[in-house]
Amino acid sequence: MHRQGLQAKQSHAQSMYPDPEASAAQVYSSVTGEQPNNSYDATTYDREDTADHDFLRDTGGNFEQDEQDLSDADSDYLDLQNDIAKFKDSVLKFRATQRGQDDASQEGPAEGHPPRRGRGRRGRGVNRGRGNIRGTIRGPNKAAEPTGDIKLRLSMAYAAFMNQKYEEARDVLEEIIRINAETHEAWMLLASIFKELGDTDNTLKAMIIASSLRPKDVSAWLHCVDIALEKSIEDRAGYVRSAHHCYSSAIRANPKSIEARMGKASLHLEEGNTGRAMSGFEMVLKLSPHNLEVLRRLAEACIEHGTPEKAKTLYQESIKYYRERFNNVDPPFGWSDLNVYVELLACSEQYHDAIRELKDTSRWLLGRETEKFWSQTDDDREWDSDDVRRISCADYVVGAFHLSTYGPGMPLELRVKLGLYRLYVGHVEEAMIHFQYLKAFSETDTIPDYADLFREVADALNQAAFHKQALDFYEPIQKVPELAVASACVAMGSCYLRVGIPEKAEACFKNAIQLEADNFEARVQLAKFYEGLNQQERAFEYVNEAISLKRPPPIRLHRQQTDVDDISSSLEQPTKMPRKPRQRSHLKGHKRSRSAEWKTEEAYRSENLQRHYTTMVVEHDKMKSGDESSSRSWMMSASHLIDDFRGCKTFYPWDKYVHFMGYSGSDLVQAQATLDTDLAAMANRISQSLGAEHPDSSKVPATGIPTDYRGMPFSTWLDIFLEYAVCLARSGSFRESYEICEAAKDAIVFYQSREDMFLIHVCWCTCALIASDEETCVTVARFFMKDYQFTTDSYRMFGALNRLCQSPTSWYNSGPTQKYMLRQIKAMDFSLTDRSNQGKYFAEKGSYSAQDQHGQAIVNVDMDVSLLMLYGFILYSGTSYAYALNYFYRAYALDSSSSIVNLSIGLAYLHLSLKRQADNRQHIISQGLLFMFRYYNNRKQSERILERQEAHYNIARAYHMLGLTNLAISYYIFVLSEADQAGSMLEENMTTDAAYNIQSIYAATGNYPLARAVAEKWLVL
């Protein structure tokens, strides 16, 4: 098939990066802004079906009309017209001679069905088309020879290009493409012009189209890749897609192209697609086995992917291959390849194998493969620089090989790796011997060449607790200023502390801060250092700096300003708000000016907040009644007040367990960040120590703790938060409503109040129910079970929330929920078990989350039936009926007269009997019906008609489920008779359900008159 030519109707703009699948028309339109002529498009006719479409008629055009628009001087066009006319005559004569042979040889396809076309070879003996007995050639048809007119214009374009008249050459080429977009030479020359003009984007577009016209030219596709990847780093990512397409096209042109497959795999590795990169490199290895360059790239991909075993196996095969074929000559396999191989073994922590392979392969590379006896030695004497230890080996012959093939022959990098592997397996003495070779370079000018080796050895020794030896390798690096880095300074300072040289440790930590101004670890170490020296003020300074570095950037909330009236005199005075500290000015007048400016801004902000609160008060009642306009006004004003509250950093400290002490107390920097426990504990110790030593430190007494913000009580602020969250949920902004609930929960003034936290989570559940978000319902409901553990209502609330949530039970019976409930049951059972049996039957102590007013864990003294039933229901909803029965029976042992317990056991048995794995259905059904009738006999004695209806209906539904419809009908009729007796007294009943089931049974059995009678009496509204 010919590639698609120009599409006349396609005029949309091209994207910044060339689309690999773009047609010639798309690129031509983006370059010239014109629509090309399709008269020479090879796709306008089918060469296998010339009888059905007279392409000559379309090709000829209307020459009479064209001649009126021509001048006598336009001889080129007239010559072209004559050539086309001659071509028409010759084709018509040829068709006339061939038509008789075609009709005699074979019939054509059925009318209305064109000949089938497709890629692939034709079947033997099957002729397709008219008279064509040859097989179809794979790939596109060969491009037609350019016409004389095209050749003339090409020569003009080439001449203009050689004379550097690029715009003129471009105009000619655009005209050629307009006439025939499949002119390969035009696109190539156009690409050259764009390249000379420095337009890489259009160069790539033109080259891709040119390559598409000759898709079997692999070198052309690879040239497109070179253009695509020549872009700068910031633009490279955008051209990778085009490079992928070009590599794929090159591979289709020649599946055995190693360069194309290697480039595509390398591109995948660059993008982080290690899986595809590995597959690509493995395919290259099939084409070029034991290719060391490919092996190195495959090893890199395998290490990043976390599967070094695959590359390790291929390396072992290649080493075996090269050792067999390059025994007495220099092998292509070199030291760098050995380095990669042993690194693969080390990545898998196979250090013993890495040591063995490193020594054995190095011996082969140095020409001493015959000395296999060295493999029997446990140490590395073979690689010493002298024979002092080697001569103790009985098989060693002095002088058999040159001394350079032993210790001096191993590259220093591999020797360091050998030492590291020895250190990792605990062979410290051997490791130190190898490290001494590196240490010998510490006094030379070659330290920059081996800086990475020094750092690697130092870090390994430091991690292995050989701090003194580690300093021998840290110190040479720090002597060279350009090699000094903050992380090495911190590590070296830690080593100095371990060896008892605190002065140098302090200098190293400070040097790290000088090298890296925002270094966190150095400040933590200095804080610990000064705390140990009892220099609390200096320790406090560094711990505050460390916490400042960990502090998240402040969120600056934009607040719109509106005009409303003043509401409260308490809000007239501006409240001091946290703000970004400004650089201290040495000009007092400027300082006073900035202070006055800030007061003016704060007064304006307070005035606007007052007006927003007034709007909220005025619109509150209408908002609660559902007025949309009032709701929008109230929500807009509430959002401004909430943003202001959330902007007060005092309400959101890093430690929620710190009680709110007021606004004017000492503002510790660590109250602004989320830190690890050790740093938080250290900050707390230091601050307490400073408070004890400095009696003048400002601290608000407990009796003076504020209970309001901007003149409004915290309870009012909480109401604003919760009502705003509900309004957001009702308006469909579910995620934003969750964020408001979370912001209220995180505020320290609410977090310490048990009642406030209860209200916040109730509101959170309400928003989740409005959104029918079962996941959030389950997550938030855990709060009640955690803070009110072993409280029956908390478990009932969990079940009620999931019942009210209109969504599938995927989260209700999910794995995390089941595990959480099981932990609750284990905690309940743990406290009720004798101490002698607690260690015997429980692997760990129960998890008690509820606490009393004194902070002591609340331990249950009895079993909770609701918890047992809830876990049973979770298992029941997941069709684990046999497991659910275990917990239903535990609840039955505690309350055998409970209707819900008996009903649950009965239904679990009935459902279990319907499962394929049921062994004795009759027995299981009998057990189920036993409990069902215990439930029934208990429930039908109730004075409430609804409960008696429920009992009749559940028994009827159980029989109906078992297929015993004759028994089910009588109980359904009991439901209807109860409704007849009650009349209109019932607010809720099961009459409709029972009537529908009865008429369904009658209809299924063919008793349509009875079904109609039941429907007319009970189902007609």
Structural notes for this entry:
The chain crosses the membrane at residues 868-889. Residues 1-69, 97-144, 554-602 are annotated as: Disordered. TPR repeats lie at residues 258-291, 486-519. The protein is mainly α and 1021 residues long. Among the domains are: 24-46 and 143-255, Serine Threonine Protein Phosphatase 5, Tetratricopeptide repeat; 879-937, no CATH class; 940-1021, Tetratricopeptide repeat domain (Serine Threonine Protein Phosphatase 5, Tetratricopeptide repeat), CATH 1.25.40. It has 43 helices and 2 strands. A two-stranded antiparallel sheet has the order 1-2.
Question: If strands are numbered along the chain, what order do they take across the biggest sheet?
Answer: 1-2
Task: Give the CATH level 1 class of the domain at 24-46 and 143-255.
Answer: Mainly Alpha
Helix count from the secondary structure assignment: 43
Q: How would a textbook summarize the main sheet?
A: 2 strands, antiparallel
Fraction in helix: 55-70%
Structural class: mainly alpha
Tell me, what's the shape? Answer: extended
Integer average pLDDT: 77
What's the β-strand tally? 2
CATH topology of the domain at 24-46 and 143-255: Serine Threonine Protein Phosphatase 5, Tetratricopeptide repeat
Distance between the termini: 68 Å
Quick one: CATH superfamily of the domain at 24-46 and 143-255?
Tetratricopeptide repeat domain
Quote the beta fraction.
under 5%
Report the radius of gyration as a whole number of Å: 43 Å
Poorly predicted residue ranges: 1-74, 100-139, 552-594, 663-677, 692-704
**If classified by CATH, what would the architecture of the domain at 24-46 and 143-255 be?**
Alpha Horseshoe
